[in-house]
Amino acid sequence: MWVLVGGSTLESYIKFLNNYSDKFLQYIANQFELIILVTVISLILWVPLGIFLVRHRKYAQKVMTVANFIYCTPSLALFVIFMSIPFLGIGRTSALVAMVLYSMMPLVRNVYVGISGVDKTVIEAAKGMGLNKNQILKKVQLPLAMPVMFAGFRTTVIMTTGMSTIAVFIGEKNLGQFIFDGMNRHYMEMLIVGSVSLCIISLVMDYILAFCEKKMVPKGLRVGRN
Asked: How deeply is 57 buried, as exposed, middle or buried, from its count of CB atoms within 10 A (0-12, 13-18, 19+)?
């Protein structure tokens, strides 16, 4: 039988998956549930805020300063801060609030920068055609800003995937539990299964988002990726 990482065999990994299949599937479901919740709430909150800042630029610097401060705060520290708030406590609520706030910077910044970067001559041409502010936003600014906005969305999703793993420290149950339990118990199969599964999830999600970008954003407007 093949010997894999840490002297474990393929048979030992199969045995682990058989013994922990229920937990494995539940952790994957929890991981995706948290990622989807954070992403949806973040889009609902931060995209409109970015649009608001474009129209009320006097608030932009202050909001960006707050967003940057949150983004520069270590994620684990942010989790602990919200966990210590009585009505949030240990568990998903604290993780959700912290991750949504963490998503503020990439989404608000990219929406603001994307829309602000639309050529003013294009906007003037749209005004000359009789379009009002809302029509210009919907038909001109948002489509042209889509590449930058989508890049922020893509960053948010991948960042959220990584942060959700650390959320196990405050009571969330997902694949991160396998990683930290595996390290504490020196259980190589548990550690590797958790780590590899998370890597696969991140790669698959990035691939799906790249595919969506190709479908949604015209080729000439896409933001380059290494």
From this structure: exposed
Query: What's the pLDDT score for residue 2?
Result: 46
Domain count, the chain: 1
Please state the length of the chain: 226
Global pTM value: 0.84
Q: Could you tell me the two tokens for 146?
A: 């889509």
Question: What does the pLDDT look like over 182-216, one tens digit per residue?
Answer: 989 888 889 999 999 999 999 999 899 888 877 77
Which residue range is the domain that position 59 belongs to?
5-108+151-215
Residue 10 has pLDDT above 80, yes or no: no
How distant is the alpha carbon of residue 196 from its chain centre? Answer: 19
CA 200 to chain centre: 16
Does residue 202 form part of some domain? yes
Amino acid at site 50:
G
Residue 46 CA from chain centroid, whole number: 13
List C-alpha distances in Å: 4 to 38, 180, 181, 203: 36, 20, 20, 22
Position 138 in a domain: no
Average pLDDT over residues 11-33: 90
User: How far apart are the C-alpha atoms of 47 and 142, rounded to whole Å?
Assistant: 11
